[in-house]
Amino acid sequence: MDPLDGFHLYDTTLRDGSQQEGLTLSVADKLAVARHLDELGVTYIEGGWPGAVPRDTEFFARARTELDLHCARLAAFGATRKAGVAVQDDPQVTALVESEAPTVTLVAKSDLRHVTGALRTSGEENLAMVRDTVAHLVRLGREVFVDAEHFFDGFCHDADYTTSVVTEAFAAGAGVVVLCDTNGGMLPHQVTEIVEDLRARLEQAGHGQARLGAHTHNDSGCAVANALTAVRAGITHVQGCVNGYGERTGNADLLTMLADLQLKMGLDLVPEHTLEEATRIAHAIGEIVNMPVSPRAPYVGASAFAHKAGLHASAIRVDPDLYQHMDPRAIGNDMRMIISDMAGRASIELKGRELGFDLTGEQNVLSRLAGTVKQREAEGYSYEAADASFELLLLDEIGRVPRYFEVESWRATSQQLRDGTLETEATVKLRGTVSGTGTGQNGGASTGRAVAIAEGNGPVNALDLALRQALRDRFPLIDQLELQDFKVRILDAHHGTDATTRVLVRTAGADLEFTTVGVGPNIIEASWEAISDAYTYGLYKAGVAAPTG
Amino acid sequence: MDPLDGFHLYDTTLRDGSQQEGLTLSVADKLAVARHLDELGVTYIEGGWPGAVPRDTEFFARARTELDLHCARLAAFGATRKAGVAVQDDPQVTALVESEAPTVTLVAKSDLRHVTGALRTSGEENLAMVRDTVAHLVRLGREVFVDAEHFFDGFCHDADYTTSVVTEAFAAGAGVVVLCDTNGGMLPHQVTEIVEDLRARLEQAGHGQARLGAHTHNDSGCAVANALTAVRAGITHVQGCVNGYGERTGNADLLTMLADLQLKMGLDLVPEHTLEEATRIAHAIGEIVNMPVSPRAPYVGASAFAHKAGLHASAIRVDPDLYQHMDPRAIGNDMRMIISDMAGRASIELKGRELGFDLTGEQNVLSRLAGTVKQREAEGYSYEAADASFELLLLDEIGRVPRYFEVESWRATSQQLRDGTLETEATVKLRGTVSGTGTGQNGGASTGRAVAIAEGNGPVNALDLALRQALRDRFPLIDQLELQDFKVRILDAHHGTDATTRVLVRTAGADLEFTTVGVGPNIIEASWEAISDAYTYGLYKAGVAAPTG
């Protein structure tokens, strides 16, 4: 499929989205986000500004070998050449070329006040900068888009000049000129008027068929509506960010626009089965950038199709469609009644079946399990994100949880010595009682007791290493399990350092991938719980028999 | 001022807003919110549903004596009479009368499918219910508004029937009929078409001058735009909730609509000096309902006028108005520079000025500082969230960072003993070299050395307590500083427990509130850095002199 054929869904999460206060992306984060965006089926992924931001230069370098895009095309963002410099001699333009991105999106000033006040050059030179840079990159075989910065404000101030920037870009070979509401203050009726006016001018200038785009921000609360309005006025390229990330109040939310355009305005942007992944992808990206999806987010938020029980409840049962603006399954979300039915017996029975346990009719087990889940979630546990810990809970309830090891004691110490060096070590002692099968060097066949000590980067790392060492001889499979992800969340932050901590640990290896959870006022204790559960679960799922002693 | 004269700004935070998942309001909360809304100058405050919700009955009772409204009028929300019941005999209608609210807003079904499917009555009886209830309340001297529920969906399904509900309400004496997008899925162009169609029909029916309202939800991300669009189509009453609270994705954000209508569309809704309180009021209400204002909220959010990009900073210095869609002071907010690794010298100069340091022309200092920020952010530090740590960095650069204490060593140990009990303790040793002024029990005047030990809930808590104890005798002000918030982020989570950790600590007390940051592979080390910086910064800002020894 040639991306130029259809409508462009252009994602700028990795560039403009990362301007969001509090959002910082590593190169690995960026690669992970890009894979999700490609899976969603966006047309373009703007990866960053190579040459200006070192991390972005590295992103494009690694993308060449590590990013195997199936659908999306990678775009590098950059600026037109500097005033008074030949385009070939501008290192920033050279960096764009060297990024090897097939598409380059150039930001160009289109408000004369910014040209003279911020760039401190003339309107004429600015036009030459647009012309030279676009033509140069087109000559080198790049697809070139131009972001007309401050387009709407500029058009209101001096429509002739702003239009001349657009026509200059098209004349030099730009594939799209994107009308940017950089300060984000436009209202929908203004967008309609300005886009229609511009299109009439472009028609006269012989660029009536040229493709226009819209880049909107949410400063007046109208980012999505402004983009939709622009589409109705003839625009065929919209830019936005997943979950509405972006500088200040954020960019237009890409997934809201996608759902509105496809489900309500009839545009065919991504395959149906891909749109059904939208909710999952929004939340996955929220996890990667560590900025969770707002429960109130349109379409993909946890509350987007949630109904407080009461007035509507009985009517909803009769005909849910009367109470929702679309079928939530179309974007992978679901209608939900807010009556904490998550921990109800029915859902636990369903969950059990999902895990391979038939609990049909086991009302006592289901009731006890529902009670335990409710109580532990009140303490801060979260089983939604930790299937493995839920399964261990279930196994415990039916008396089938395997006991691979019993902990005698553990200790973790971090210290800064007089000379400034940091030292962290941990000791783990496992009892011998269950070790009938063990003959490890650390313990010995006579007692089966295992004592291990390890140094680490931090107390949790040291404890993890010590526990692995204590288990290794008995259970060599341990070496195949790797702790891949470690998340800490302070639950009651208002108690300062004296608060409850939740730790989620993701483990992979031996053809498994699973998450365990630990909770406690002490981060070390919570981590210990999640890690020791991870090894128990890993050994159990890999089919290792528990000692019978 | 007769509220019927001008445009209506109708707040439903206390009714529809409280449908938000996770939001529960006590009567005292409701009274406090109402006072803030009155101060803001809204025209109507919908207080709740007396007779249906016991708390709301109590709210209206207490409002009569405890709520002294200067500007707003109180509205009680309720439903039209039950099918087949005389209006005088409907206890729910009687409760509306007994609430003594001067205005009553009745919800009426206006979608025929809901009339037959949910109410299970006929279209004719539904019209009689509207007629009887409105006329009854008007006879009793109430101002009556009608919320036409599911108006837009109903109009699309059967415009004639839906219009007849509107005309029936006006004929019976309703002051406003409010067009409700109850399921929230409309797009702006649909709103325009439907409102224009309805107005033409009302013109024909002799209600061309009647007042229409709009009640919108954000399910398609267009709540605010849909209301503004309705206003352009002739509507003169908008309903919304502060901070966009509300069921599912929320109601239209009242303050965003107010600012758009007044500052961009030229309507004169509230006095200028009242609008300047909007940011404060939004945050005050967020505190009362325990659901903080999103930093990304238009106009009033903490990030709404925050700039991160180095790109813009130099130009912002020249003319801030080129980079903001309106003057943030008009709604009581402020422009703010965020220091990040994208920041160049210009933004550091601006940030310095914000903190009270004039670095104009200090090119060397600015360059070194920009370099340090860039390098440390690459290591994982984040100064955007940690102004205090940035200020310490700046003080360090100009040789003015105060040295209140020097650390000799520290140690934190967590352990689980054989009997299963958990123990955590920390030791902190401070050198005597800087303690010329200290005569504490822990150290003594001869050396000034301080040694303290403390137990805690976790290693960080124990270290914090030990450090406070070691500093207390020298600096009694320490007891006024409280660590209020503690955030942990694992930066390169894919290394499992062997990853970089960032800790943010918010400290308050002694009329200060600030955030410090610490980074390291060891969570204890990172926490130690953030905590010890917090005490240094707190003592410095409180004006405590550093020992000179």
TrEMBL record, chains A, B:
One of its GO terms (molecular function) is (R)-citramalate synthase activity. Pathway: Amino-acid biosynthesis; L-isoleucine biosynthesis; 2-oxobutanoate from pyruvate: step 1/3. It holds the Pfam family HMGL-like. Residues 7-276 form the Pyruvate carboxyltransferase domain. Keywords: Amino-acid biosynthesis, Branched-chain amino acid biosynthesis, Isoleucine biosynthesis, Transferase. It is an enzyme of class 2 (transferase). The keyword Amino-acid biosynthesis applies. It comes from the Bacteria. Its EC number is 2.3.3.21. CDD domains: DRE_TIM_LeuA3. One of its GO terms (biological process) is L-leucine biosynthetic process. It catalyses: pyruvate + acetyl-CoA + H2O = (3R)-citramalate + CoA + H(+). Belongs to the alpha-IPM synthase/homocitrate synthase family. PANTHER family: (R)-CITRAMALATE SYNTHASE (PTHR43538:SF1), ALPHA-IPM SYNTHASE/HOMOCITRATE SYNTHASE (PTHR43538). NCBIfam families: citramal_synth (TIGR00977). This is Citramalate synthase.
